[in-house]
What does this fold into?
Amino acid sequence: MVLVSGIGCSSRLPGYMSCFGFHGVHGRALAVATGIKLVRPDLDVITVGGDGDGYSIGGNHFIHACRRNVDMLYVVMDNRVYGMTKGQPSLTTEPDWECDIAPGGIGLRPFNPLSVAIAAGANYVARGFSGDPNGLADLIVAGIRWPGFAFVEVVSPCVPFRPEQMGWKKLVRPAALSVDQDRAATTALVLADDGFSLGVLFRGERAPAAPASKPQISIADIEREFALGA
It folds into this structure.
């Protein structure tokens, strides 16, 4: 197994695990993880990050990782605030949340990562809660085992900068959404949800992207390519 991360509070995770790890640059964790999995399909590849690393600077990689459907797992710990840089709004922050740099709130509709993941082609989409470690572990294991690109959003309070998020433990609940093969119908249900429904929300049947076959190249072939002409 190899654990890949970008930049942020959650991206410190590889340093605490007993497995291969790669701490990459901001927003590029999925690109690194995709390369690892395609070159070493025998490895279980897990990528971790936060809402800034995964959806903002890494948003383009997120969309195309769902589209490519490489067989790996992406876990995003979303606290709806940029905690590492001391409490600015993120792209999943509620429009009316106030802070020093956004008095009155930012007034923008929050980004909905689960609907984007389903629409873009992810094969497994789920939401867990950091206050329910056993339930979250089950979602992660199921995501690793499901073929194709699996995405688990973790509702993860950041109490130092958003103490009101302590109330999230009273808001989370098992999802009433059905696991549906219809991407359009499931996307509509996720868009109408308040963001606190937990569980597997979608499982698809797309075939995972296969690693490219490796050409058989000998040392002699390489030497001939670099040989100088007469």
